[in-house]
Amino acid sequence: MSIENLARTNVRELTPYQSARRLGGSGDVWLNANEYPIAPAFQLTAQTFNRYPECQPAQVIERYAAYAGVKKEQVLVSRGADEGIELLIRTFCQPSKDAMLFCPPTYGMYAVSAETYGVERRMVVAKQDWQLDLPAIADNLDNVKLVYVCNPNNPTGNLIDPDDLRRLLEMSKGKAIVAVDEAYIEFCPQASLAGWLSDYPHLACLRTLSKAFALAGLRCGFVLGNETLIALLLKVIAPYPLPTPVADIATQALSSEGIVLMRQRVSEIATHRRWLQQALQNCAGVEQVFTSNSNYLLVRFTAARQVFNHLSAQGIIVRNQHQQPGLSGCLRITIGTRDECQRLVDALTTANETCQERM
Hints:
single chain
């Protein structure tokens, strides 16, 4: 029997999540992974690399709890928010019996993680305005133990109506955990549901240092939830999820000075986003630039494939979203530096000229 045949059937047939790095590409302007474009500077202070780290580094937990406005018992730290996604599935969903529900177009790892663990993926496509289709969700909650909602949503950039989120939490009481992915919440902190935890014991919020904190390479994320939920996740998480250097840098990033710097980045990105949105609206071949509450813009082009290829040839890498429901012709563009944004706009001008020549 071959090694492949020894693998579980669902893994053999699985299409893995196509991360930005996995897709690759050759360029020098990377606008495809929603990263901050400039690396922050940190110096390691911890040197005890001969010892295993704490399972849940106390200072990281304390500082993140203070930042998020919750109790330290309501915080779990993980290897990026992606590990939090998997922990929730492993904790609450029984393979081949339970289901998880998600609402595309949205982040692809929810579906991939569920499939990896043999959990049914139940898809309820969002409405045309990318808001939740609550009646359809209600009709599909049988055997669902976990519902994922991304807010602001990736890749569309919109905020989910808070009244709809509250209705979702009400209809799922006693049935399912509602996990709200707040990876981009620093760009719209008023939309966070962390303040709702006391009202809803089945609510979990996923967070990360990858976006506004400019630490995608650190792989440090968080799950916020009530004490009972966090205690259950602690039964499942690996014994040493956060390496000592990661905890060291995360602690520094969550200092008062680090949070000030993060908010400066958010302001800077918002300024660049406004400029780029206006510039893109004036570019020929752009059908629509969607409003965003995050560090990226979703843009629909009349000739998206040609534009994508042209940008790649110019060394500018963006993210093609055409396979997501309702996103035909759409590219997602991370907000880079002001110079990178200008280079993108200049390249789009030549892309339009090239497309016209080929018509």
